[in-house]
Amino acid sequence: MPQKPSANDTIQIATIGVGGMGSGDTNTSLSIPGVKLVAVADLYDGRLQRAKERWGNDIFTTRDYREILNRRDIDVVLIGTPDHYHSRISVDALNAGKDVYCQKPMVQKIEQGHEVIDAQKRTGRILQVGSQYASSMVFHKAKELLAAGAIGELNMVEAWLDRNTAVGAWQYSIPPDASTQTVDWDRYTAPVGKRDWDAKKFFRWRNYQDFGTGVAGDLYVHLLTGLHVVTNSKGPSKIYSTGGTRYWKDGRDVADVTLSLVDYPKTAEHPEFTLCLRVNFASGGVTDAFGVRFVGSEGVMNVGYSTLTVNRRPREAEPGYTVNTFPKAVQEQFLKDYRAKFPEQRPNADSMRPDKEDVYTPPRDHVPHLEHHRNFYSAVRTRKPFFEDATFGLRTAGPALLCNQSYYERRICEWDPVSMTRKA
Ligand SMILES: NC(=O)c1ccc[n+]([C@@H]2O[C@H](COP(=O)([O-])OP(=O)(O)OC[C@H]3O[C@@H](n4cnc5c(N)ncnc54)[C@H](O)[C@@H]3O)[C@@H](O)[C@H]2O)c1
């Protein structure tokens, strides 16, 4: 493809990792005019077979993603592999001159982040991370409202992603034909070193630190993406996490309940605030809860998957008093002084009313996942990167991964949001 393709050029894509999300990203990409799938790579033969059933017998399939990167007819690769392969494939793909849509988290280890950023800068290719809430209208509306002072000065954010089902807790199906014949186990384990064959570690990879990034790396990233969109933040400075494997004692070596407290320093973009993050995989009834709640001095904004609610209450006009335990004469003196300072007013009308509530819902046809892909293909055509590039990717993945480190190391971790490096 020429450096700046015309609007009519077909963009030829290949997907590396065609499990759940790689397939979803492929289908969404194919719903965009001018996008054609030519190849897929996967390490389980059944998924390669299924790719042909879905997208036609003429697509090229392989176990070795490098065969895809070597093809000159492929402009774009979508990366839908487990997390331990994200940075390796991204860097190889950028070096091979491809544009990249890589699923979140952009990296499995913090140190890999700068390699991806450097590769993106050096090659000048487009890399967009697949956290679709970066393209969500509700988060962008919340950003506009926060900047306009709708909730006063931000001081705290609460964000959560709770689940209460087996599939939600990463208990995925294992196909009956799973074996070292149908799965390229050696290639799968190559980045981490030799491991004994274990179908669970292949099909339920999220539950193991070797291949996934735990609930913090995997799911906090969505919450941090939304938060960073709304606040325009570069990231936090201090992180503490705790939690444990409380319900899903199925051999996993990651937590199923994690709570984190995260401090964001004052910057030109936002005041100092504290973030409380939570994932609970046995949340007692709520099957799929997702939210980011922005608390300010004059209101609260709640952002969900597809709604934004703003509740506002102006601050009181006068501070009020608590004097009736004082001796009578002291009360009288206090009230005299008080009224001199705050001449008698009628009761604050706003304090008598319930909070003012505004609800924003995007148009019915707004699907963040589709919008995110549209933004990506538009960047591929115009060569103007969408803002969720490799740097944005590390600004969310880095603190999310540090939430895990804090939990594993049982201590407060420090992060430099400007240089995007761990300080302590
Ligand atoms: N944006 C979102 O909302 C969202 C949702 C789900 C998953 N994801 C992300 O998508 C990625 C994939 O998750 P999933 O749920 O689809 O997992 P999955 O297990 O369903 O699919 C992963 C696929 O990658 C293949 N694979 C593994 N190593 C490979 C390699 N080296 N080369 C080629 N193929 C390889 C596996 O065989 C498997 O088919 C993860 O990074 C996950 O965090 C994002």
Write the layout of secondary structure elements.
Elements: E1 11-16, H1 20-30, E2 35-41, H2 45-55, E3 60-62, H3 65-69, E4 76-79, H4 86-95, E5 99-102, H5 112-123, E6 127-129, H6 137-147, E7 154-163, H7 185-189, H8 199-203, H9 214-231, E8 238-244, E9 257-264, E10 273-280, E11 288-296, E12 299-303, E13 308-312, H10 328-341, H11 349-352, E14 356-360, H12 368-382, H13 390-409, E15 413-416, E16 421-422
Helix pairs in contact: 4-5, 5-13, 6-9, 9-13
Residues 16-22, 41-44, 47, 65, 80-83, 85, 103-104, 130-132, 187-188, 205, 218 line the site of nicotinamide-adenine-dinucleotide.
What is the CATH architecture descriptor of the largest domain? 2-Layer Sandwich
- Give the low-pLDDT segments: none
Overall mean pLDDT: 95
Rg, alpha carbons: 25 Å
Small molecules held by this entry: nicotinamide-adenine-dinucleotide
Total DSSP E strands: 16
Q: Name the CATH class of the largest domain.
A: Alpha Beta
Output the CATH topology of the largest domain. Dihydrodipicolinate Reductase, domain 2
Percent helix, as a range, is 25-40%
Q: CATH superfamily of the largest domain, called what? A: Dihydrodipicolinate Reductase, domain 2
If helices are DSSP runs of H or I spanning 4 or more residues, what is the number of helices? Answer: 13
3D structure, described in words:
The protein has 13 helices and 16 strands. Helix 5 (112-123) runs antiparallel to helix 13 (390-409) and helix 6 packs across helix 9 (214-231). A hairpin with an 8-residue loop joins strand 9 (257-264) and strand 10 (273-280). It has helices spanning 20-30, 45-55, 65-69, 86-95, 112-123, 137-147, 185-189, 199-203, 214-231, 328-341, 349-352, 368-382, 390-409, and strands at residues 11-16, 35-41, 60-62, 76-79, 99-102, 127-129, 154-163, 238-244, 257-264, 273-280, 288-296, 299-303, 308-312, 356-360, 413-416, 421-422. Strands 14-13-12-11-7-10-9-8-15-16 form a 10-stranded mixed beta sheet. It has a 6-stranded parallel beta sheet with strand order 3-2-1-4-5-6, with helices on both faces. The protein folds into 2 domains: 11-133, NAD(P)-binding Rossmann-like Domain (Rossmann fold, 3-Layer(aba) Sandwich); 136-315 and 350-367 and 390-422, Dihydrodipicolinate Reductase, domain 2 (2-Layer Sandwich), CATH 3.30.360. It is of the alpha/beta class. The longest helix has 20 residues, at 390-409. It binds nicotinamide-adenine-dinucleotide. Nicotinamide-adenine-dinucleotide is lined by residues 16-22, 41-44, 47, 65, 80-83, 85, 103-104, 130-132, 187-188, 205, 218.
